[in-house]
């Protein structure tokens, strides 16, 4: 599957009057494309409210002064991955998981490294999907972590 730009994803999905997405994979693709394309994407309030759950957005807002480089935190690496591929998705009732493989190609520090990242999503009462958390799997140069847990620890 070819990686699509944030604009291609937005243009291809159903336009909606509310934030959130009609499909969990669309929401996860939109999040990951934003992470890869825009530096400090979480500073964009409109983008953030479109894709993040209220709880996760609250953690982002509270920890904002400590995070000048959001994408570094989202990648959980010193330098961002260069490629991503969606490799799996699963929906169970009002919850979903979408897993991506991040690849570092031509990287100074991580060349050839691959790592899995899983996006956890939930569906609200209106049927819209939002990102609840981002989970980084254990791999070379990284430890298992949850984005929401990292943000919560920063605000203590």
Plain-language structure description:
It is a single chain. With 156 residues, this protein is an alpha+beta fold. 33% of the residues lie in helices and 25% in strands. It is built from six helices and five strands; from the N terminus they run H-H-H-H-H-E-E-E-E-E-H. The chain has a five-stranded antiparallel beta sheet. Helix 4 packs across helix 6. The radius of gyration is 15 Å and the shape is globular. The mean pLDDT is 81.
How would you summarize the topology of this molecule?
Layout: H1 6-12, H2 24-37, H3 45-51, H4 54-63, H5 70-75, E1 83-92, E2 95-103, E3 114-123, E4 129-136, E5 145-146, H6 147-154
Antiparallel strand pairs: 1-2, 2-3, 3-4, 4-5
Helix pairs in contact: 4-6
The total of helices stands at 6
Residue share in helix: 25-40%
The helix/strand order is: HHHHHEEEEEH
Rg from C-alpha positions?
A: 15 Å
Poorly predicted regions: none
